[in-house]
Amino acid sequence: MGEPYIGIGACVGIALNADNSGTFWGGTPGTAVALRPYPGTLKWEEKCKQSPVADLRVDEGHNVTGGVSYTGSFEVPLSYVGMELIHALLCGTAPAKTGATAPYQWDTALAEKLMYGAITYYNQERDGTAQSLAFTNAVVTALSVSCKAEEEARATVSWAAATLTIGTTALPTPTALEPVIWSHLEPVFNSVSTHRLFSVGFEISQEVSDGEFQMAAATPTAQAYIERTGQRTVSVDAEFLHDADVDTLAALTTGIVITVLWNNSGTTTAEREYSLVCNAAFREGRPETKGNNGVQKTSLKWSNRKAATPWAVQTKNGDDTIP
Q: What is the pTM of this model?
């Protein structure tokens, strides 16, 4: 099962920037939602853009002497609550609520612009000292989710940011997560839900490098070829106990619909769901393993291609508002 938490050593905060004259760059970050990460997973790196004068590339905003940017990642349990701001920074728009009473459905659509926010790491050491690392004008560049048999699902969030402020500002009390676990999984591959799975996972990514993003520029400019929904890609990985149904699935070379759904079936007062729907998934490969005692495993991977609605990520929970 999942790893235990020890004390109150660390948390990570996510906040969205307010709109700033038609863009999300430079707006004031709103209310942060704090999550408890897995121990030891708050990673970050400073990158420097030092451009020799001999290059004479003064027209490119990211080629400035002393320019820096930041990248990093953290891991949290995939949760029925608390993930919506991560989705927003990845998809480029705030989640939309459906429903008049709980449970509410939160849909995050693809937008043709980047959304910026603040990501804050907070650590409290054993001796009582504390440190906050506030990374601002940040985007989420990837969300990777994995879930193995009889375990809870893990989410790895990768990000890039323009600035860093170091201090001792404490984050709010972390959201009480409701972990997504294997027994809640209800996957559907091309209208079939009876496959025997060993593991399943997906990744949503947008290829934004520090140079393309112009993190070190004093006045970042819009990059049309980045700010398009087609630049966000989805891949789905699944490992099956081999049978005839898997052969049928593996033989499909046309785009199929894949739904990776976790549903707690209303076991709490407000029903919880977390789902990713990929509407045009094309198979990329088929690794196979001959295991012990004649057990054969087949791994299949699909990547999303163009569709009218390429993919969608959705949560259902009892939260009435998202900061």
A: 0.86
